[in-house]
Amino acid sequence: MAISQYTARLSEKTQLNETYIFLRFELLSPDRIDFSAGQYLLLNTPTTPQKRQYSIVSAPRLDHAIELLVEVIPNGQASGYLNSLAIGDEVTFYAPAGEFFIKPEVIQSDEPLVFIGTGSGLAPLRAMILDLLRTKECKRPIRLYWGMRHAKDLFWLEAFEELKSNFPNFSYHITISQPEEEWTLCKGHVTNCLSLHGIPENASYYICGSPHMIEDVMKVLTSLGVDAAHQHHEKFTV
């Protein structure tokens, strides 16, 4: 799929919590997009000459629009620009880009798939999971590990519960690195949660988050005997 320039109009903007926003852009020109779940776009912003990468959080079957999960960084030029947009505002971007997606030979196998993310690293993982469950009707075990600092930072929990209810092969675990006393689920980093729940045999792993987090996860997976060829990652930087 060749990278093309797109123009799109903001049609939905939701404040998920104090830090994260959800944006939906309807495509204007071209009015359709073909991409693989896990890929990203390169956003043009008036605040910086550099294009900013944002993973597409929607699944490919939504081909007339793209959805983004944005962590609004204090004094962040790109995230600040996106946060300032009003319904009806237009943006331009280039897409699709990136090699962080599930290859056809993996999709055709029956091995378990494990997705590990922190913060906005959830974005490409969500796209992959939705594509596997709803579009490809995948029946293999699919497990998500998602880490955040505080419980108040969490969002989309009802959506994950709905997926778990509708698709018995899907499960997820949330870990909080700075939990309150009342938090009863996984505590610490996602590596702690991995060690607690164990890992399935012969699985492929898709990891997205900060470079430090990815290095830690890969060290743990390697120590547990997971071959490097089964560890796929996308590093997020601010």
TrEMBL record:
Q: Which Gene3D superfamilies does this chain map to?
A: Nucleotide-binding domain of ferredoxin-NADP reductase (FNR) module, Translation factors
PROSITE patterns assigned:
FAD_FR
Molecular function in Gene Ontology = oxidoreductase activity
**Domain FAD-binding FR-type spans what residues?**
3-103
Q: Which domain of life is it from?
A: Bacteria
SUPFAM superfamilies recorded: Ferredoxin reductase-like, C-terminal NADP-linked domain, Riboflavin synthase domain-like
- What Pfam families does this protein's entry cite? FAD_binding_6, NAD_binding_1
Read off the PANTHER family from this record.
Answer: NADH OXIDOREDUCTASE HCR, PROTEIN RFBI
Q: What is this protein called?
A: FAD-binding FR-type domain-containing protein
User: In which organism is this protein found?
Assistant: Candidatus Cerribacteria bacterium 'Amazon FNV 2010 28 9'
